[in-house]
């Protein structure tokens, strides 16, 4: 299970949209618990939003702390860093936790992202 999660994070870091999408199911749910996040339901909706997200975040890097597995679920505490291009390249670093659900076929069917949008806003405000 951690193989697909590792591939997914690697693909995000590489800004490789096709590789990211190859890791998720057609009914993939991308849920954000932070006020600044936007949920996406379905692979098509995620595919439509992903290029714009990646284009806004130069040098995007998810650095996983560990992989915690429990059956079909995995939790991955991470540090995400990037330069926010819409704000002139402001550097941001924030901690968060992904909780993934892996479908029986071995792809990710759900990603819940826990992160602090207030901390991101604070860093962007400088």
Can you put this structure into words, describing what you see?
It is built from 4 helices and 7 strands. Strands 1, 2, 3, 4, 5, 6 and 7 form a 7-stranded mixed beta sheet that branches. A hairpin with a 5-residue loop joins strand 6 and strand 7. The mean pLDDT is 93. It is an alpha+beta fold. The chain has one domain: Nuclear Transport Factor 2, Chain: A (Roll). It starts with a helix and ends with a helix. 32% of the residues lie in helices and 44% in strands. InterPro entries: NTF2-like_dom_sf, SnoaL-like.
Indicate the structural class: alpha+beta
The string of secondary-structure elements, in order, is HHEEHEEEEEH
Q: What is the CATH architecture annotation? A: Roll
Shape verdict: globular
User: Compute the gyration radius: what is it?
Assistant: 14 Å
Please state the oligomeric state of the protein chains shown.
Answer: single chain
Give the tally of structural domains: 1
What about the largest sheet? 7 strands, mixed
CATH topology: Nuclear Transport Factor 2, Chain: A
Average of per-residue pLDDT values: 93
Total DSSP E strands = 7
Fraction of helical residues: 25-40%
Beta-sheet strand percentage?
35-45%
Q: What is the CATH class designation?
A: Alpha Beta
Low-confidence stretches: none
Number of helices: 4
Calculate the terminal CA-CA distance, rounded to whole Å: 39 Å
InterPro entries: NTF2-like_dom_sf, SnoaL-like
Protein name: Nuclear transport factor 2 family protein
Organism: Kineosporia corallincola
Domain SnoaL-like: 5-110
């Amino acid at each position: 299970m951690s193989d697909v999660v590792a591939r997914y994070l690697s693909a995000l870091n590489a800004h490789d949209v096709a590789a990211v999408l190859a890791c998720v199911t057609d009914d993939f749910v991308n849920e954000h618990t932070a006020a600044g996040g936007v949920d996406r339901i379905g692979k098509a909706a995620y595919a439509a939003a992903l290029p714009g997200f990646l284009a806004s975040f130069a040098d995007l890097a998810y650095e996983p702390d560990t992989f915690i597995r429990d059956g079909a679920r995995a939790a991955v505490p991470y540090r995400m860093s990037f330069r926010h291009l819409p704000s002139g390249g402001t550097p941001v670093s924030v901690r968060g936790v992904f909780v993934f659900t892996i479908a029986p076929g071995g792809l990710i069917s759900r990603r819940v992202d826990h992160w602090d949008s207030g901390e991101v806003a604070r860093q962007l405000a400088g």
